[in-house]
Amino acid sequence: xxxxxxxxxxxxxxxxxxxxxxxxxxxxxxxxxxxxxxxxxxxxxxxxxxxxxxxxxxxxxxxxxxxxxxxxxxxxxxxxxxxxxxxxxxxxxxxxxxxxxxxxxxxxxxxxxxxxxxxxxxxxxxxxxxxxxxxxxxxxxxxxxxxxxxxxxxxxxxxxxxxxxxxxxxxxxxxxxxxxxxxxxxxxxxxxxxxxxxxxxxxxxxxxxxxxxxxxxxxxxxxxxxxxxxxxxxxxxxxxxxxxxxxxxxxxxxxxxxxxxxxxxxxxxxxxxxxxxxxxxxxxxxxxxxxxxxxxxxxxxxxxxxxxxxxxxxxxxxxxxxxxxxxxxxxxxxxxxxxxxxxxxxxxxxxxxxxxxxxxxxxxxxxxxxxxxxxxxxxxxxxxxxxxxxxxxxxxxxxxxxxxxxxxxxxxxxxxxxxxxxxxxxxxxxxxxxxxxxxxxxxxxxxxxxxxxxxxxxxxxxxxxxxxxxxxxxxxxxxxxxxxxxxxxxxxxxxxxxxxxxxxxxxxxxxxxxxxxxxxxxxxxxxxxx
Length: 530
Fold this sequence. Notes:
It is a single chain. The chain has 530 residues and is an alpha/beta fold. Helices cover 46% and strands 7% of the residues. It is built from 23 helices and eleven strands. The strands form four sheets. A five-stranded parallel beta sheet has the order 4-2-1-5-6. Strands 3-10 form a two-stranded parallel ribbon. 46% of the residues are buried. The model has no long low-confidence stretch (mean pLDDT 94).
């Protein structure tokens, strides 16, 4: 059984010459890639804990630890399969500012004449590696072989000259990959069962929420390495990491989701609660980290869920299965297409001209607004929140308050364990903040406290009144909502999906409108005190 090499000098001491180096990034842990079909002693696979990857944004400590553990496990799995593997930790890479700097040293150590890498999913890394073309090195880029839509086909589905809508794309993907299809029609006669996936949790539903499957990886060794290198991170790091960090564990999590959680997933996928010890997980799969590091194949996940629908003994009905598949086959592939179609300009879009600073409580959870306190506190504890918490709680607040999208992006990209720029940026800057002006969404996803009260129990025992608008104890979401709609009227007032809102606003007396706007102004001037 081959052993993982852990020092650069091992390249010089190898008995076999190194003809080719193959670089594997931390989110390219795809055991099914064609690279690994054949074994070649002259090929060395390299995984590296790079300091640059810890510094381009401030990360949640669980995110860093999970990536490092998953990378190490993948290296050991490759070595066990007979491949030559070099794994460099932070000690070994401390002298290198970038991947090209490291690659220069490795090719000199090894005498390698060829470099191959898989296409990075982040624009900054793609540019870094595409720009690395030494005269005496044969460099080639291969596909990651992970996504359902091949990279070269993205222009067939997406265009810079028109706004895209996920539903249209999703239907095309369902047809292309024959997922939940009955001949040429969708199963059940409908493409989308979203209207059945918006239920609030009742007391009996909360009681039935199952305990999530979690893992227990000792974090001491990686924690020590982060402290030694003074990696600036935040959030809580338990002694035992609960996230899957191997292909085997990712598959266990998928099986557990299909068996125990999928039957109620769709029904409660938008719900939120504080009344259960498992409120952070609910019926969500928590597979996004495993998917985004490529430990899981998305088509295999889709097929596993579809098989549950076709299994007459399984309890998951069509609405539950379709709701989950839409997230993977539809939304996940869709945001990737948006990202690569519109980068790099997309990363600086700010159509609503939002400029306020992110409140300090986003780093502590210390706010009297219970919905934000719960969602942020959960994110700091687990490096995770589900999509509605991200979109309609933290994201909605940032949208209404006019927070600079650069700061919003940095927070989302850093805090969530599954956040990689290709998926984070369109979801945050586009869907959540409407900073792209409508490329991702047909209207801003803005909402008052009424939405929070409808979909959660966050408003119970909150210091603010979810019904109040202008009073001192009125929930800030209410006045901020109307302030946002009022100040953005020139930009979104003609949108047919918001015109009815403005008609209701115009029917209020001038005194009422001004009182609400005054309350909002107070909130905006005192964001850190809310």
